[in-house]
Amino acid sequence: MESFGPAQLVLTASIARRYYVDGRSKVEIADEFRLSRFKVARLLDQARSSGLVRIEISHPGAIDLELSVQLQEALGLRRAIVVDTPEVDEPALRTQLGKAAADLLSEIVTAEDVLGLAWARAVTAMTEQLTTLAPVPVVQLTGALTRPDVEANSVELVRHTARLSGGPAYLFYAPLVVPDAATARALRQQPEVAEAISHFDSVSKAVVGLGSWAAGQSTLYDAMDEKACEQLEKRGVVADISGVFVDADGEPVQSRVTDRVIAINAEQMDKIDEVIAIPYGLAKVAAVRAAVRSGLVNGIVTHAPLAKALLNETN
Amino acid sequence: MESFGPAQLVLTASIARRYYVDGRSKVEIADEFRLSRFKVARLLDQARSSGLVRIEISHPGAIDLELSVQLQEALGLRRAIVVDTPEVDEPALRTQLGKAAADLLSEIVTAEDVLGLAWARAVTAMTEQLTTLAPVPVVQLTGALTRPDVEANSVELVRHTARLSGGPAYLFYAPLVVPDAATARALRQQPEVAEAISHFDSVSKAVVGLGSWAAGQSTLYDAMDEKACEQLEKRGVVADISGVFVDADGEPVQSRVTDRVIAINAEQMDKIDEVIAIPYGLAKVAAVRAAVRSGLVNGIVTHAPLAKALLNETN
DNA sequence: AGCCTCCCCGCTCATATGAGCACCATCGGA
DNA sequence: TCCGATGGTGCTCATATGAGCGGGGAGGCT
């Protein structure tokens, strides 16, 4: 069965060519070669199972489709886009991912959607690459974190996107995290904040940030007091999804710290149909896995090395 | 039409994977992805036409299937085997081609066949590589040419093959070319020669030599007197197929020289169902083309460079 | 030889598939 | 505003295809 003569081999190749390349039907091929269509079918089966015909899925672009599909299926994601880019410096990488995410967003957002945007550098990178967007309401999902290295803040991000889209913007000026729960409560009652929050339930698609709960791996971590960080770490927090903390099992972690965050909460995020994150860097493997396990994040735009790491470690 | 969003792209890739790699049906895929089967079909069409799925035919062996099929179709051959071997020295090449031809012969010769063998170095190389053969009569098609560089002659070649096969051998001792027609006539009436010739009509498969009509490109040319060579050349002879001379259009050339050759003639060869030649070397391009055009030769075992040359020059 | 087993072949019939068509939404121009 | 063009969708129906079956030939064993 495993060894064929050369005539058989060439015949099979010939038929495979006719079938796959020329796209003729098996009946036609059978007539041409004076074989029964069953024989043709068997030869084609044989050709495939013996590896004589190899089918590759690829395309001339930045997206590694093979990896994308694998990642999507392995993690059970609604969407996965893997950008095939050599490991360049972080800003360039963010731009690349931002472009891919922007393309994705333009494509999947329709006029019926309500778009939610959280604060994250990757999300900023995305909005910078965004050129067209259906006219939809854009809702700010988190308070702003002002960092010296980022000029745009959460507010600008939302405003810019809404302007591009032509839809209304629901935005507010407030920090992402405040020193105590009472302040947070007060802020949440501010009219603009309250209005934005009131729209959380109608958000149908969102782009969020995704941080690994460690120094330098989450802007929120870096912005928070050490005590709070440690407390959350002790509770098993592995990832923060734009202010929603989850542990390695994907369970949202409640804590006093949670109350100090001005952002969408786990329950609200869970109701959003599509939540897309744009993680990069191998340090985020565990965070991504946790976020996906939580079910909160169901779409990912990332780069090849992280995608491969996610696939490899998937036990 | 030519630009898709990444989501579309990944969806298409996903479907292509399911269809081509996993082998699921379009209906199943449609159910899985909540699409109509028509949509799935259209996406798959799109994927193929846009080059997203690429189908390659290859295999881990010495035979270049792609080239073989192309050659077969371009020249309208019954069989074409192209051995993919780096341009090595001639004897090694002959061995390689001999092996391929031997495999081919073992495969296609059945007990109902009658095998004809002409004299040629390549045919000798083939018989040396032959290990199994259905029990068939083996008929010597040409007289022998004794050359200092070849130990086996036409007779040995036939005897060896017949022994391997287990069938009867029809062989004779006579030179391939004699000084005059009268001698040839006399030789043809010798009992063994006459008997072999009487079997020419029943030969169903034959392996022949193929020479380009020029010095060093045909053992027959080299063995003949200069005058005869020139005369044939003047008549437009481009190739000799084991003693049958053909011009560039593939027309057999009759001449007084023809009568001096002890070998199968054009008419008899034309009746043979499969006639296989084993040409090699780029100098033989024109000869191969003539031989194929004549319709006398309908199977070829060769190497990649010659195959490519034949394909390129095919206007 | 006689028997058995395996394998190869081509059949039937249910199902999958493709070609062509009609419908509908969208969009640009009169 | 209306109209025609356009493209995308899913239908029908004829055709292609796959699963499973039985016949028969080749080869091995007793």
Could you describe the 3D structure shown?
2 copies of one chain form a homodimer. The first copy, chain A, is an alpha/beta fold. Chain A has 2 domains: 44 residues, Orthogonal Bundle (Arc Repressor Mutant, subunit A), CATH 1.10.10; 249 residues, 3-Layer(aba) Sandwich (Rossmann fold). Helix content of chain A is 47%, strand content 14%. Chain A is built from 15 helices and 11 strands. The first copy, chain A, has a 7-stranded parallel beta sheet with strand order 2-11-10-6-3-4-5. In chain A, helix 6 links the parallel strand 3 and strand 4. Strand 1 of chain A pairs antiparallel with strand 1 of chain B, so a sheet runs across the interface. The structure holds a DNA duplex (30 and 30 nucleotides). Chains A, B: InterPro entries: NagB/RpiA_transferase-like (IPR037171), SorC_transcr_regulators (IPR051054), Sugar-bd_dom_put (IPR007324), WH-like_DNA-bd_sf (IPR036388). Chains A, B: Belongs to the SorC transcriptional regulatory family. Chains A, B: This is Transcriptional regulator. Chains A, B: Keywords: DNA-binding, Transcription, Transcription regulation.
Summary, kept brief:
The structure is a homodimer of 315-residue chains. Chain A is an alpha/beta fold.
What's the shape of chain A? elongated
CATH class of the largest domain in chain A: Alpha Beta
> What would the CATH topology of the largest domain in chain A be?
Rossmann fold
Largest interface, per-chain counts? Answer: A-B, 43 and 43 residues
Computed structural class of chain A: alpha/beta
Which parts of chain A are unreliable, with pLDDT below 50 for 5 consecutive residues or more? none
Strand content of chain A: 5-15%
Number of strands of chain A: 11
Radius of gyration of chain A: 25 Å
Mean pLDDT of chain A: 89
Largest sheet of chain A: 7 strands, parallel
Under the CATH scheme, the architecture of the largest domain in chain A is: 3-Layer(aba) Sandwich
Query: What's the multimeric state?
Result: homodimer
Q: Could you say how many structural domains of chain A there are in total?
A: 2
The number of helical segments of chain A is 15
**End-to-end separation of chain A:** 35 Å
